[in-house]
Amino acid sequence: MSHEAPNLDFEGSTPYEDYVKADVLTHLQHTLSDDPGEMVFLVTTQVMELWFTVIVHEWETAARALREDRTQVATDALKRSVRELEALNASWTPLAGLTPAQFNSYRSALGEGSGFQSAMYRRLEFLLGDKSASMLVPHRGAPRVHAELEKALHEPSLYDEVVRLLARRGYDIPDAVLQRDVTRKYEAAPEVEAAWTAVYAGDQNGELARLGEALTDVAELVWRWRNDHLVATRRAMGSKTGTGGSAGVAWLEKRARNNVFPELWTARSYV
Ligand code: HEM
Ligand SMILES: N[C@@H](CC(=O)c1ccccc1NC=O)C(=O)O
């Protein structure tokens, strides 16, 4: 065979298929209505679930590396996640201009389904420090998902690991913060703010300054995801009640106000 031509001859499935599972992935688009516009809604949601999975993987890698004092490995994983968050956020584009009439064409078929029930998004929030035991309740009937969420609830968040690293690097972090109940939402602490103020005022190329900036990028992009979701929702359904049972836009506005890594922002006033 000529050396320029690709291989055509495989026993059974192709090595591509064995690796990518494209046949499985491209047959998971079970729409619930006959509306042709539903396909992109479903696929965008599935694409975002895949990005959530990648980002959770990066942040778990980062959290583990921090625990082992391998700060550069953590920063590298966080930087990869920044690019991935940019791609995640770019995937809002196909849904960003949905009109209420377009969304209504398949909205009723969604029943009580809501992104609120996304377990991977919940793991992502837990890693950020937005812990809440009640968020496990919707998943009681799904043992694997429930077990993964339960584990994530009881593990220190990515930000808990960052704060513990600051303490090991000599910053004065109180025991109340270091030994906090990690199953509860992280609350900002003045000593952590003071630590970041000192880090920011010091060597801009130091490992903690670089870690702090990677975390700030993450926080900003998570805030952008929440905001893009909020604006797409406002365009598509105004102030209607959500399929998940929440007040809809008003509830999402409250969620979007949640600060990610709060002291990384407030410390900036004191540098
Ligand atoms: C225009 C399309 C969309 C609309 C109108 C919309 C609407 C909503 C509403 C109203 C809520 C509040 C919960 C409830 O249902 O009562 C919600 C929550 C949520 N949605 Fe969407 N959504 C859209 C697209 C998406 C997509 C593509 C994803 C990707 C997975 C997604 C993920 C989520 C998540 C994770 C939550 C929970 C947020 C939290 O817990 O803070 N949504 N959405
Ligand atoms: N919560 C939306 C429905 C919705 O957007 C949705 C439905 C099923 C699966 C994912 C969804 N995306 C975000 O909530 C609504 O109230 O119309």
Automatic annotation (TrEMBL):
* Organism domain of life: Bacteria
Q: Cite the Gene3D superfamilies for this sequence.
A: 1.20.58.480
Against InterPro entries, the record matches this protein to: Trp/Indoleamine_2_3_dOase-like, Trp_2_3_dOase
Cofactor annotation remark? Binds 1 heme group per subunit.
What cofactor requirement does the entry state? heme
Where substrate binds, per the record, is at 107, 243
Give UniProt keywords alphabetically.
Answer: Dioxygenase, Heme, Iron, Metal-binding, Oxidoreductase, Tryptophan catabolism
EC code(s) of this entry: 1.13.11.11
Q: Where does heme bind?
A: 229
Assembly information from the UniProt record = Homotetramer.
Family of the protein in this entry? Belongs to the tryptophan 2,3-dioxygenase family.
Q: What is this protein called?
A: Tryptophan 2,3-dioxygenase
Which species expresses this protein natively? Streptomyces thinghirensis
Q: Which gene encodes it?
A: kynA
